Amino acid sequence: MRLPSYAKLILPIAIILISASFAFGQERPRDDREKRREDNFEERFKEMKERLELTDEQIPKVEKIMKTEQERMEVLREAFKDKDRSDMSKVKDEIEKIRQETRKYLKDVLTDKQLDEYDRMIEENQEKRRERRPGRDGGGPGGGPGGGGNRGGF
Fold first, then answer.
1. Which among 44, 47, 69, 77 has most CB atoms closer than 10 A?
2. pLDDT per position as a tens digit, 61-82
3. Domain ranges of the chain
4. What is the DSSP letter of 56?
């Protein structure tokens, strides 16, 4: 199977990040946040398998696509974690780009019915995030320019 174009970008970035951590003698400890993300991925992927009724043939393909998305999001988080809030529009643009590329790859694996259900899952998760983060999409307390909370997730 040919590697997606974004996978070719991730490898050099990952190598640089790993090399940098070793160069400074600070191998990053595996913290609770990373463990929660991994557990969360497993829970979400389990839900995805059930709701999309993935076949045995689709499961490893979809899992690889979604893990790649998660890795790209993590690289993005690391790159922007100490940035100013004014950079949030760039982050949102990058998140949207990653999501669109993920959907494009899923379209090659899923049926139209499954893809429609995937889109519903994304919308539901966006809505849940908006509910958990009131006022961060431009309205209510704490809202306004540069507000967050508009990420999808599956």
1. 69
2. 999 999 999 999 989 888 887 7
3. 31-132
4. T
